[in-house]
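During the first year of the project, the team set up a workflow for recording each protein of interest as an amino acid sequence followed immediately by a discrete structure-token representation. This format lets reviewers and collaborators read both layers of information side by side without switching files. As required by the reporting guidelines, we include two representative entries from the current panel. The first entry is reproduced here exactly as it appears in our internal archive.
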Amino acid sequence: MENSQEKAMGTPSDTPQPENASPARAAAVGRRRLIKAGAAAVPVAATLVSRPAFAWHGKTPSAWGSEQLNPNTSLAAVHTAYVDEVWTIANWANNSGRAGLSNTWNALAQAYPAIRTSRNTINGVFDYQKVLFSELCAAVPLLRAPSGVPASTKVASGLASNSGSFQAIVVVAQLNHILLSSRIPDLNRIVSLQALQQMAAGTFKPNTSGQQAVWSQGTTIQYLQQNYLAV
């Protein structure tokens, strides 16, 4: 590999030219050297500006649903996709951050101090791993609890062991929206919190012709995952 790289970098055009080389050839060599010198002077960071570190985007339920009904049309080209760099389910399972966001449970405790109880906070230290689902629902009244989750479930470990479940996905999608919609305005353009609450309750259906049926859990999971609202 080293030999092949050396050959690629040491092209004949980069070697010194004889004195009797044509003026055009000498000028071309000079231009190449000037370009190389200029490129070497540009900081590496500057060459990365145009390459975003993340590229998560989402579409409205109506737009996404229309594309599912008509997969062979060009609808995808006309539907707007909005930025939604939110937390992952794993972030909520292990209290971590991403895309410039702070750690999940730290952000939640700051926005909703009631999540800190005498049972999960010892000597002033909040232990997110001890938070029960009942405590989460009580502290965050906007969260619509999906059926099938026992009140005594420890949220973080439940998300870690059932990350692909309907319950985990709709809970995380709601938490992301509740905490980040003010920071990421496009979240409200993608989907409303009310719609996410209806998805959690199993009563959501898009207000679009051709999409009159209530979404199944499978459709809800597919939408939230494919639009990066809870992955």
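The second entry, processed by the same pipeline in the following quarter, appears below.
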Amino acid sequence: MRGNGAFSVNTPSGKGNSGAVPSGIASYSATDLRSDRSQKGTSRFAARIGRRSAGRPESRLGERGSFPTDRSFQVTCDGVQWFVFVDCSDGFRYTFGPFVGELRVTANCPLGTRVTGGGVFGS
């Protein structure tokens, strides 16, 4: 499995694109479905989504997603370079990736928040 497990883009302020600060740290775990190898990490990118969802980025991937708990979004996907996002009740979208290959990824919202949406984008 390749990929560094974290995608980082921030404004110079380090506070995302709105000046607001996320409520905590969002985390993920990923399991390669072919080799059974696992990795864990945190999101270093959070974008403010405001009152309305920022929408679902375009995806050409055949992902299968679910919401196993109030705090997590789980997706199984296979692709060349793809990212997972989770929208949380603190008003932020947390992004994880890039991921390569067929993996099952669980994205967790920060403690004290819940999932309001989630998805995958990439190719």
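For the second entry, the following points were noted during internal review. The chain has a mean pLDDT of 77. The two ends are 16 Å apart (CA to CA). Both points are flagged for discussion at the upcoming steering committee meeting.
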